């Protein structure tokens, strides 16, 4: 058996050379745990993220809008499933992952603890929330853990359809009646700051960034990604003719980036700690779905057992 120092050296050398770490490779325990934490948080975000939008499927304004929203929400379920599978390769079971979500031990993105009050919110979520998710996730297609990186490739392709779906809703509303344009503006006003918070605390406050950058789990810091999001999104708001709700937002010639106002970190931590507008409702909905779906899981297991027993019987004959 190789000693730990040699295994560590081999691991570090793979990271250095950009070679993926695979489930059967040796890895430091902290690397494994960090991935379980991040991948499962990401999976939970996808599954909880279905709730605010699911709320509008029956109220979509046309059949075309309904079909697109339905497809988007179904994609999110799929993303959750790829990600739970990627987390399971690290030696944790699906049941444990759900238990961590239901008990509050595992987090999910703060953004999904805000309510969806109007149809325009379907536009703002697609445009801003999926837009922010893409910026964060494109870098994750090159993250150092193979199963996570591969899951992210497909997820990113689908997220880009989601972002366009949302932007197109915003475009239609902002070219519509004054009331429709106002609906789009109100939605932007409510989702702008929570979208900036999605990237996590500032680099100075981030507990995990330094180590995650060393292990190439993260390739860019929270602040770098947030800045990239602002720089990409401001011109998109200009095309819509909408105003970003930030009086301090202005182009900085020297940096060739936008300066933007201070984020309300007190609000962010309140939401992360479970005291946002919809935290309790979201977890209650997930627990209900888990309990209500128990019979499906039991039936699937019973079916698989019967099938296996029949195969054994055929072999024996
Ligand atoms: N919400 O050291 P830090 C989507 C926590 S949407 C809640 O910077 P890290 C979708 C953090 O967990 C997005 N908690 O952490 C879109 C840590 O606490 P713990 C899902 C947050 O991990 C549309 C503490 O704060 N995407 O997919 O280096 C529809 C310190 O933070 C948040 C992902 O999950 C937050 N916003 O960086 C449907 C992408 N931010 O764990 C679905 C993968 C931070 O020590 N994740 N915290 O208790 C990541 O890239 C990183 O985990 C983060 C945070 C950038 C989010």
Can you tag this structure with a few keywords?
single chain; 12 helices; binds benzoyl coenzyme A; mainly alpha; 317 residues
Describe the structure.
- A two-stranded antiparallel sheet has the order 1-2.
- The chain has helices at residues 4-17, 29-54, 63-88, 94-103, 120-140, 146-174, 178-197, 209-214, 222-240, 265-275, 279-292, 294-316; strands spanning 250-252, 257-259.
- A hairpin with a 4-residue loop joins strand 1 and strand 2 (257-259).
- The chain contains 12 helices and 2 strands.
- It is globular, with a radius of gyration of 22 Å.
- The chain is mostly helical and 317 residues long.
- The longest helix is centred in the middle third of the chain and has 29 residues, at 146-174.
Please describe the topology of this protein.
Blueprint: H1 4-17, H2 29-54, H3 63-88, H4 94-103, H5 120-140, H6 146-174, H7 178-197, H8 209-214, H9 222-240, E1 250-252, E2 257-259, H10 265-275, H11 279-292, H12 294-316
Antiparallel strand pairs: 1-2
Helix pairs in contact: 2-3, 3-6, 5-6, 5-7, 5-9
This protein binds benzoyl coenzyme A.
């Amino acid at each position: 058996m190789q000693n730990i120092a040699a295994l560590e050296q081999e691991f570090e050398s793979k990271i250095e050379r950009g070679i993926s770490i695979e489930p059967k490779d040796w890895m430091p325990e902290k690397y494994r745990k960090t991935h379980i934490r991040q991948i499962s948080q990401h999976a939970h975000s996808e599954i909880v993220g279905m709730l605010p939008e699911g709320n509008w499927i029956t109220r979509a304004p046309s059949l075309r809008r309904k079909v697109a929203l339905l497809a988007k929400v179904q994609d999110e379920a799929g993303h959750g499933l790829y990600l739970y599978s990627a987390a399971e390769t690290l030696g944790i079971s699906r049941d444990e992952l759900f238990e961590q979500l239901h008990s509050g031990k595992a987090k999910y993105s703060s953004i999904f603890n805000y309510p969806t009050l109007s149809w325009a919110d379907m536009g703002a979520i697609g445009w801003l929330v999926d837009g922010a998710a893409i910026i964060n996730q494109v870098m994750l297609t090159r993250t150092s853990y193979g199963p996570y990186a591969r899951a992210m490739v497909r997820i990113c392709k689908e997220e880009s359809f989601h972002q366009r779906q949302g932007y197109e809703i915003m475009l239609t509303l902002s070219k519509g009646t004054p009331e429709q344009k106002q609906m789009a503006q109100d939605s932007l006003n409510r989702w702008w700051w929570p979208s900036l918070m999605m990237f996590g605390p500032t680099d100075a406050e981030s507990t995990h960034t330094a180590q995650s950058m060393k292990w190439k789990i993260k390739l860019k810091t929270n602040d770098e990604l947030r800045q990239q999001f602002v720089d990409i999104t401001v011109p998109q708001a200009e095309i819509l003719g909408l105003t970003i709700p930030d009086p301090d937002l202005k182009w900085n010639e020297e940096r060739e980036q936008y300066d933007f106002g201070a984020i309300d970190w007190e609000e962010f931590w309140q939401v992360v700690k479970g005291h946002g507008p919809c935290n309790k409702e979201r977890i209650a909905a997930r627990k209900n779905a888990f309990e209500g779906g128990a019979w499906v899981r039991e039936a699937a297991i019973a079916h698989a057992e019967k099938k296996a027993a029949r195969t054994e019987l055929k072999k024996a004959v």
